[in-house]
Amino acid sequence: MTARELDAAGITDPTLRNAYSHCRQLNAQNGKTYFLATRLLPAARRPAVHALYGFARWADDIVDSLDTTVTTDRRSADLARLQADLERGLRNADSTERVILALADTARRYSIDHQHFSDFMSSMRSDLEVTNYPTYEDLRNYMHGSAAVIGLQMLPVLGTVVPCEEAAPQAAALGIAFQLTNFLRDVGEDLDRGRVYLPADLLQAHGADRELLYWSRRTGRRDRRITQALKAAEDLTRGVYREAAPGLAMLDPVSRPCIRTAFVLYSGILDTIAEGGYTVVHRRAVVPRRRRATMALDGLVRVAAARAVSRAGARRGTHPDRKQLHVETAAPSPKPVHEGVA
């Protein structure tokens, strides 16, 4: 965390500054796409985003570590300790754990509903027991806690030009779209963890199943049925991006370039998956660095434009409305499903 960001956010206590700096480091190391987008936010709002991400990253690492020496019982105990630390931290606005300390401070500053954190922890605990989802509805219920609440936590930090509850469905949908994208990108790694996040009914509709995925991962061989199922999952995910897209115009204008960039970068992972022939069972899809840099530059241009409009409005004593800024910051429509090579 740079001193400028902490100063802009009004975070002066040395212990808190250290806690937020630790969260920023977690973000920079583990979430390159998200960290890049966060850099487009006003400096005063970045520490809160890093605190929210740092907490989610910490819990996720407990559940998703590929270290085979860590037993399920150990992971469960670690999650229980984290849950207890979280509840104490939120209750007392204090903690000896840096991530919890920053999170509790962020929750207080932005009046974030504590239920969002409880719902998130419930989904993390379910990951220790649930390894497949019979239907998309079952998966969507899980993603409420694992992804939708992340969007809802972020909303007060980003700010809105409409009542927060009006933007909430789109914020939740964007969190789900991001996670569905991650599920597609990480199919192979999740198989190594013993998990399948592609709904069983979606796989079955194309003649695939869990066992076929394991066979493909183990042998390195491809199968047309898996390719078709992955195409269907891509199509489903793009539909959720379309649900989320109208929410961009509901955000505070100075926050829109950040979320628009995240929107385009994450949906771009779907493009990379399709362009690579849907081989995610065998290798992780990565957005090329040049494409990420291009989007970051576009985001910087939009940040400058949004801040110029905001300053002009401040000088006139007015504020730009949602319609005025929609053209500048609207998200492009997600691309249609690609015809990958089977």
Describe the structure.
By secondary structure, this protein is an all-alpha fold. 70% of the residues lie in helices and 0% in strands. The chain is built from 16 helices and no strands. Helix 9 (164-185) packs parallel to helix 14 and helix 13 (224-244) packs antiparallel against helix 14. The radius of gyration is 20 Å and the shape is globular.
Features:
single chain, 342 residues, mainly alpha, globular
Helix/strand-derived category reads: mainly alpha
Radius of gyration: 20 Å
Unreliable segments (pLDDT under 50, ≥5 consecutive)?
Answer: 319-331, 333-342
β content, as a range?
A: under 5%
* N/C terminus separation: 45 Å
| Helix amount | 55-70%
Number of strands: 0
Number of helices: 16
H/E series, N to C? HHHHHHHHHHHHHHHH
Quote the average pLDDT: 86
* Sheet of most strands: none
Query: What global shape is seen?
Result: globular
Write the layout of secondary structure elements.
Elements (H helix, E strand, L loop, with lengths): L2 H6 L5 H17 L1 H7 L7 H19 L7 H21 L5 H13 L3 H13 L9 H23 L5 H22 L1 H6 L7 H5 L5 H10 L4 H21 L11 H20 L13 H28 L5 H8 L13
